[in-house]
Amino acid sequence: DDDAPEPSTPPDAETQIAPSPKARRASIGFVGGGAMAEAIARGFVAGGAARFSDLAVSHGSDPATAARWRALDVDVLSSNAEILDRCDVVFFAVKPHILPNVLNECGAHVDVDRHLFVSVAAGVSSAFIEDSLKKAASKGIAPGRPGPGALPSSHKKETEKNTRVVSVVTPKVVRVMPNTPCLVGEAASAACKGSAASDEDVTFVVELMRSCGLCLNVSSESLLDAVTGVSGSGPAYAFLFIEALADGGVAAGLPRSTATVLAAQTVLGAAKMVLETGEHPGALKDKVCSPGGATIQAVRALEQRGFRSAAVEAVLASAAKSRELGIESEKQHRGK
């Protein structure tokens, strides 16, 4: 979510890991320079997939955002079109309601043989992104560029409900739902390809995202709303839980700094046990809960106050909002 806090100080240039040859096969650009884009960029650098000097970003008109990226030694460009002209892999890292205008601006600069688009905008379908880029391309061809793979004039035109679309080759799009722990190399992301992207394209994106944490290739794009609910929004739930644990520690007499460190490490350690042992979380919980002990009384208190139900409802609310954001974004664009 682009409303996340701004990441902290970048790693020193001396500590940046040299990118692997495979990771450097393509230049990477970000359309949108908010917190999510920055977290991903920092993750790529820390994970060895790129150097800051290999990246480019377009930032709108915010001087503070531009200054922050320049401080990282990232090439800051003045327009979204320049990102497409320079970069092979283009991340659309803007809010869903902004994405339609971005696509309209970029369409005439698409080169389908070169560009791979990665969208991190919650809820906006790859089909909408593909169609929007094709429609924008049909309105004009960028100077010096042949346009997005225009087919021979004898080829029939495609039609959509109430909309005529000039038939151009469909751009390659992969949707990704990342989260802000990209910043520390512990992301939980999922990816799904659009209609024109190949298995190789989505594999490349998954490997790129794995430079900053876990990334799974999900079978159906409809699952990405659920991914948003679990892992996209999940860091906020975890931060809230850590804060609440620390508050409890303070209430019980611990200094704030001690309580916070203990709470954060406890959540980290519990998560590692789930991932590394392969045991069901419920089974691991049962091992901590001795008969008549303190922990089972604490679990009872959580259950009495609806802890489990609240977590489930949080995921469903986030997933529903993700779907809503996509529908509203697409509806507003089609209404123009």
UniProtKB/TrEMBL annotation:
Q: Is Oxidoreductase one of the keywords?
A: yes
An annotated GO BP: L-proline biosynthetic process
Which keywords appear in this protein's UniProt record, sorted alphabetically?
Answer: Amino-acid biosynthesis, NADP, Oxidoreductase, Proline biosynthesis
Q: In which pathway does it act?
A: Amino-acid biosynthesis; L-proline biosynthesis; L-proline from L-glutamate 5-semialdehyde: step 1/1
Q: Which domain of life is it from?
A: Eukaryota
Catalytic activity, as annotated: L-proline + NADP(+) = (S)-1-pyrroline-5-carboxylate + NADPH + 2 H(+)
Q: Does the keyword Flavoprotein apply?
A: no
PROSITE patterns, per the entry: P5CR (PS00521)
Q: What is its EC number?
A: 1.5.1.2
Q: Where is the Pyrroline-5-carboxylate reductase dimerisation domain?
A: 221-325
A single GO molecular function, which one?
A: pyrroline-5-carboxylate reductase activity
Which ranges carry the Pyrroline-5-carboxylate reductase catalytic N-terminal domain? 28-123
Q: Where in this protein does the record put region Disordered?
A: 1-22, 139-163
Which family does this protein fall into?
Answer: Belongs to the pyrroline-5-carboxylate reductase family.
* Protein name per UniProt: Pyrroline-5-carboxylate reductase
From which source organism is this entry? Answer: Micromonas pusilla
